[in-house]
Amino acid sequence: MFQNNPVLIQLKNQLYKKKFQVKGIVKSTSKGFGFLRVDSKTTYFIPPQNMKKVINGDKIVGSIETINNREIVFPKKLIEPFLKKFIGFVHKHKNSIYIQSRYPYIQNVMFYKYSTTIKRSWKNGDWVSAKLQKHSLCDKNNCFSIKIIKFISEKKNPLSPWHVILSKYNLEKKSPEVDFLNFFPKNIPDNNRVDLTNLDFITIDNNHTQDIDDAVYIEETNSSHLILTVAIADPTEYISVNTEIDNIAKKRVFTNYLPGLNISMLPKEFSENLCSLQPFTKRPALACKILIDNDGTIITKKTKFFLAWIKSQGKLSYDNVSDWLEKSGTWKPSNKRIEKQIFLLNKVYIIRNKWRKKHAILFKNYPEYTFHLSKKWEILNISVDKKRIAHRMIEESMISANICAADFLDKELGFGLYHAHSGFNYFNIKNVVKFLKKYNILYTSEELMTISGFCRLKRSLDILSDEYVNYRICKFQSFGEICAFPKPHFSLGLSSYATWTSPIRKYSDMINHRLIKSVIKGCKNISPPDHSVISHIVKRKRKTRMAVRKIEEWLYTNFFHSMNYDKKNYYACIIDVSRRGMSARLLKNGAFIFIPITYIHNIHYEVICKPESGVIYIKNKLHYKISDNILVRLLSINHITKKIIATLVK
């Protein structure tokens, strides 16, 4: 009876057309339109015309109006802008210049209104850093205003990938430079250093390495024990705390090893000359003498740290030493003394590696991908490399030295800079036990929360040899950390671990050097590392890791752009699963690719991707999981997002 009542119809229409306002976050799409996300269940449509007033990620107040039976968002007020500072490139069209952001979700926003104090004749494609000065919702003309604050690189500069990415993460683009003559160090007194220049120390590095920071010397005792002396370059003898060079190193934290480009932490006059353990050159060192018994056990009560002078008797390379030990190639040691050192170093590796396999945890030897570049920064080739025997020999010696440093700092100070890993998160441990039961691997929660139990589990997983299980177990683990006080390192199977063997390349190792030397010199009132320094190291490490990945992605897109990439099939390993598809890495060259659901199976609703467990079901049947090898063909390369899209080859 009320169905056709004209009064009720009129009232209903009035209520329906009534405007109301909501707060939310803008989400853009590649098709120009977007959505205002109010909460996890509520979103409203933003048409393309209205999206021109906002940027993906903006927090705004929007007015909701109903047009043609659809609720539409009209942006009204800015609460917080998403875009504050960004990297973009210059577009020149006729007499106009505008800036386009590199950020994928705001590529459609062109910034016409800009200001700058940089005096430059802008060229098409110039890379710049800019900041948002005024949002369109705060401007009476609905225009975005930006300020160009830094010129980064010309488009044609072959180093653009490095410069743009390093600028994005606020990392330095070149090694530090100082007036070396003003900083030339004082003479180092001999009376507090042991002269070991008559011993046959050797260094083993890559062929091109100039910043040599470790040397080793090994001798056998009458009881067939081995004495390993690890001598580490001593930059802290030249660089005092809070000096200009120390502050440079403290800010940079690491030597940045990028694809095809190394950016040193210290000025190269120090890292590659004055402090480097160059052959046949007398150098100051911080040394550690390590006594190792027949079964590989380090007799820690016999470990000794001391200051020394050394003179390397040979700069050897990983490849040459590996070839010689594997009885291939033409290289051979220059004399019998060097030959003896190589054999003894290999003996140290064998017994220490055997000890760690039994009592701790060994690293897996995963492949590494190396970009080989021409002098014009063109990609010539990408090689797949694994650590060879010489690399593993030096690595084992440095691990032994780091174990000794942790023990020394524990006993003498009770603090230092430690690398730690607490194993499984307490809240995940029941899920770990439940997951392992599926594979008939039986442990209790209490066992897995101890280092010994964690080590036994890792050995059980090595026997199982299932990469998917390893992946799932890693997902249950906590993250590694750097701390000022000793904690266990579950992933190494050690009670504590403190690095000190790369002070030319790592500021954290410089800190441990200073602490160890303070004890040797009998200093008083020694303080633990400041928390702010540790926090900076952690942040810098994360930024560096992300920068390396982004530069690699850029170089891979350049590499495939120069060839007929869609004419060839590649084997790849699945490394991640998301709601939209799966990511994989090409086995031949390490390139990162993405396979959308539409190229996994042609009926979208029959595909279920489970990111939390890293698996993909089709028609309720498991088809793919992380660690699976698959055959793919590349389809397209997005040169803006630097993403490579591929399809499965069935």
From TrEMBL:
GO MF terms held by the record: exoribonuclease II activity; RNA binding
SMART domains tied to this protein: CSP, RNB
EC numbers, comma separated: 3.1.13.1
Reaction catalysis annotation: Exonucleolytic cleavage in the 3'- to 5'-direction to yield nucleoside 5'-phosphates
Domain of life: Bacteria
InterPro entries, alphabetized: CSD, NA-bd_OB-fold, RNase_B_OB_dom, RNase_II, RNase_II/R, RNase_II/R_CS, RNase_II/RNase_R, RNR_Ribonuclease
GO terms under cellular component: cytosol
SUPFAM superfamilies, per database record: Nucleic acid-binding proteins (SSF50249)
Alphabetical UniProt keywords: Cytoplasm, Exonuclease, Hydrolase, Nuclease, RNA-binding
Annotated RNB domain residues: 193-522
Protein name: Exoribonuclease II
UniProt keyword annotation of Cytoplasm present: yes
Any one GO biological process: mRNA catabolic process
Sequence similarity: Belongs to the RNR ribonuclease family. RNase II subfamily.
Keyword Protein biosynthesis: no
Source organism of the structure: Buchnera aphidicola (Cinara cf. splendens/pseudotsugae 3390)
Subcellular location: Cytoplasm
Domain Cold-shock: 23-79
Originating gene: rnb
